[in-house]
Amino acid sequence: MFDIAPSEFLLVAVVAIVFIGPKDLPMALRTAGRWIARMRRVSNHFRSGIETMIREAEMEELERKWREQNAEIMAANPAVPETTPAPLPDPAAGQTVAAAADQHDAVPHAVPVLGSIDPVLAAHAPTEPDQPLSTESAAVPHTDKSA
């Protein structure tokens, strides 16, 4: 550490004991520790300030490049006129996307609207909240394989 030999540390310790005295040495070491900690905090604050300035400069450079690239892209691709989107179907009225497509020519196939109930799933839904789902179906007859 700092290219100081152990014998030099021993010499500094002996000189400190002789000149400061064993009685005041702990207080002197504590004061030196406080000063060293204060210097470290100042240097860390200074270093973080420099790093922040560098980061901001890099971000400004990146933003400038992005603006230039965006301008080039916008110049190469002229703007397409905006079209008005079709209104969304009304789920409260049970309207499907297919019905909305017939009205607005937006979607060519039927897709149920969120919130609408599928009749096949509704037939199997329990009537009470704590009942299990029904396994019987009109489309698939139940067969007993235990016999």
First-last Cα distance: 88 Å
Report the β-strand fraction as a percent range: under 5%
Largest sheet: none
* Continuous helix count: 4
Structural class of the helix and strand makeup?
Answer: mainly alpha
Order of helices and strands: HHHH
In round numbers, the mean pLDDT is 75
Number of domains: 2
> What overall form do the CA principal axes indicate?
elongated
By DSSP, the count of extended strands is 0
The helix content, as a percent range, equals 55-70%
- Low-pLDDT stretches: none
Query: What would you report as the Rg, rounded to the nearest angstrom?
Result: 40 Å
Topology record:
Blueprint: H1 6-20, H2 25-76, H3 97-104, H4 119-124
Explain what you see.
The protein has two domains: about 70 residues; about 35 residues, no CATH class. It is built from four helices and no strands. The protein is elongated. It starts with 5 loop residues before the first helix and ends in a 23-residue tail after the last helix. It has about 150 residues and is mainly α. One of its GO terms (cellular component) is membrane. One of its GO terms (molecular function) is protein transmembrane transporter activity. It is a single-pass membrane protein.
